[in-house]
């Protein structure tokens, strides 16, 4: 079942004198339990695509549909993991999560159990009372993920969430993400520059060119759960890297 559908979307910045079309007539969809990744050169519009879906910036033309209903962008249950964890430094990890629960329809009597369960899912149960500043980068990114998961979104938007982490930490957090995803079957729209990460995580990769057009698409049908070190994944990565970077000017 299609969960998210972006139809004939155009995003234009600027005024009457000078305008920039970040993308024009863009179409994409994500199924209910699908993991879809956007890849493309810097500045091609990946963050803008996530932002229009999240309703952080309006579309110039086109529609966003959720469960086959046209929606005001942002008005459906989504979680957004930004590239940099935007944590509230003056609140504990638990209180950071409580903050987002207050914005949705969760009964305050359930906050405690909810916070514990979501922190356990990302391996941070022991850090509930810690302040963000004493956490490592990987732990902060896990809190970021936990916060997006806490509201039990039907769609998870993730903008290069692991790009600032060292490779060892990134592998752990990627595995956390996949474990959560296997258990909840939510739709994910993920952005990365890293082909190996895209191949390890995705069902489908959408390639965006410098003009913001989706010019190619690859289905990744390696069996799950996947072993990140599986040579077959490396082969796919090499093949897609050639195909993708070979066609970019
Ligand atoms: N508020 C804005 N006003 C005008 N132009 C903007 C605005 N926000 C983004 N842009 C332009 O839109 C284009 C796409 O930006 P966007 O941040 O979506 O790219 P990106 O693909 O996410 O890049 P990166 O990989 O570097 O994160 C860029 O050319 C950028 O300059
Ligand atoms: Mg970006």
From TrEMBL:
Listed GO MF terms: ATP binding; ATP hydrolysis activity
Pfam families the UniProt entry points to: ABC_tran
Keyword entries, A-Z: ATP-binding, Nucleotide-binding, Transport
Record has ATP-binding as a keyword: yes
InterPro entries: AAA+_ATPase, ABC_transporter-like_ATP-bd, ABC_transporter-like_CS, ABC_transporter_ATP-bind, P-loop_NTPase
Domain spans labelled ABC transporter: 4-236
Protein name as catalogued: ABC-type nitrate/sulfonate/bicarbonate transport system, ATPase component
């Amino acid at each position: 079942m299609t969960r998210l559908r972006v139809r004939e979307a155009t995003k234009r910045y600027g005024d009457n004198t000078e305008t920039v079309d970040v993308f024009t007539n863009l179409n994409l969809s994500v199924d209910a339990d699908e993991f879809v990744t956007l890849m493309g050169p810097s500045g091609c519009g990946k963050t803008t695509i996530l932002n229009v879906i999240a309703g952080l910036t309006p579309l110039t033309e086109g529609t966003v549909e959720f469960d086959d209903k046209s929606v005001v962008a942002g008005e459906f249950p989504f979680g957004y993991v930004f590239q940099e964890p935007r944590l509230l430094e003056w609140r504990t990890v638990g209180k950071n999560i409580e903050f987002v629960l207050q914005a949705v329809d969760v009964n305050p009597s359930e906050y405690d159990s909810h916070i514990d369960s979501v922190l356990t899912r990302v391996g941070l149960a022991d850090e509930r009372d810690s302040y963000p500043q004493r956490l490592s980068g990987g732990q902060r990114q896990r809190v970021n993920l936990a916060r997006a998961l806490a509201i039990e979104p039907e769609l998870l938007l993730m903008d290069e969430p692991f790009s600032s982490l060292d490779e060892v930490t990134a592998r752990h957090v990627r595995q956390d993400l996949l474990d959560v995803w296997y258990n909840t079957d939510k739709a994910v729209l993920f952005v990365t520059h890293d082909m190996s990460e895209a191949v390890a995580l995705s069902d489908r990769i959408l390639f965006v060119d410098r003009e913001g057009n989706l010019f190619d698409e690859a289905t990744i049908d390696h069996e799950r759960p996947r072993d990140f070190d599986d040579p077959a994944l490396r082969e796919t990565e090499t093949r897609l890297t050639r195909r993708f970077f070979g066609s970019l000017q």
